[in-house]
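Sequence only, no structure available. Ideas?
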Amino acid sequence: MKLSQDMKKNVLILTTFYKPFIGGAEVFVEEITKRLNKDFNFFIFTTKNLKNLPRKEIIDNTVIYRLGFGSKYDKFFFPFLALIKSYSVNFDFSYAIMASYAGAAALLIKFFRRKEYILNMQSGTLDTKNYLKILKLFWFFYKKIHTEALFIHVISNALKERAIKFGVPINKIFLIPNGIDLSNFKVLSLNRNYWQMISVANLKKVKGLEYLLRAMPIITTKFPQVKLLLVGDGEERIFLENLVNDLKIENHVQFLGTICRDKIPDILNHSNIFIGPSLAEGLGIAFLEAMACGAIVIGTKVGGICDIIKNHYNGLLIEPANYMEIANSVLYLLENKTVLESLRSNALKFVKEYDWNIISFSIKSLLEKYEKS
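Reply:
I predicted one. C-alpha cells follow.
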C-alpha cells in the first residue's frame, strides 16, 4: 500500500507497557512520537494494567488506547485485544515494540487484516538462560514474529545477531540505537560526591544487583566513605533489602525507589560512579544517561552494553555475575583519579552521537521505507 505525497502515514504502535510504566522501550516510544508527530499520525495500543488509568487519552498529539481489565494479567490478552481494537482505528502499518506480546499482536493483525508491520527489538532478557528454555517451547512462533516483519529495527549488534538466528535476511535488519535527551541529561554546575555510586534499574534478577551488593563489603573495607544509591523498584526489592542486612552494609546502601525521571539527572550529577551489573541488556540507555551527566560507567560484557562502553576508553567492562570484578573495578577507579577523569572526558564526547534529535531522524527514514516497499 502506498500513500500520496501530501498525506501523513498513520502508524499504529503496539507496546505492552507505556506511561506511567517507564523503561527504555517506553522512553523510546515517548521520544519518537513527540519528535515525529509532524511527519506521522501515531496511535498507541498498550495494556491498561491499573484500573484507575484512562482507557483513552491524548499525549503530544498521540492517541493512546489502553486495553485490558486493569490488571497485571492484561499482557496475556493484549495480542487478541489489539487485533479486535485495530478494526476501529484507521492505520497504514503497525510498529511493534519488542517481539513478545506486541510482536504477537502485530503478527495477528497482519494475518487477519493484511497490515504490514515493523518489529522493534529492545530487550536482551531473552538471552538469559531461563528465558532461552521458555523460548525453545515457542521457537516456531517467535521465528514467525521475526520473519513475517516487513523490517526489523534493532538497537544493538547483539539483537541484530539474534534476528539473524531467527532467519531474518540481513538486508531487512536496521540497527538504530536508542538515544537520550541531551538537553536534560548533561553536566550541571553541581558538587559531585567523589564517594557516591549509583545504579538506576528495575529491581529484577536480570539486572544483577545482587552482585553489586556483594561487592560492597570489599569496597567499603578499603573506602568506608562510599555510599551506593539504588534508583528503581521491582520484584527483587525485598530480597535485595534482606541481602543488605545480611551483609551488614545498611549504612552504605540506600534504596530510593522509583523517582521522577526529571530528578534523575540531578542524582547522576551528584554521583561519581554508575554501575550496571546486568546479566542481559538490549542496549542500556541508563549508561548513556550516566555518561552524559559525567558519571563514570561500569558495565558487564553482555548484549548492547558492549556497543556503548569501550573498555578503558569511556568506561569499564567486566564479566557478569562476578562481584569481585565489580569491587576491583570500583577500587581501581577510586585509586586512580587521572584514569577516572580521562574516562569521563571521553564519555562526554562519545555520548553526543546518541542525541534523540539525531536518532529520531534515522527512525523517520526507517518508517518512510514502508512507503517504498
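Confidence is low (pLDDT under 50) at residues 1-6.
Hope that gets you unstuck.
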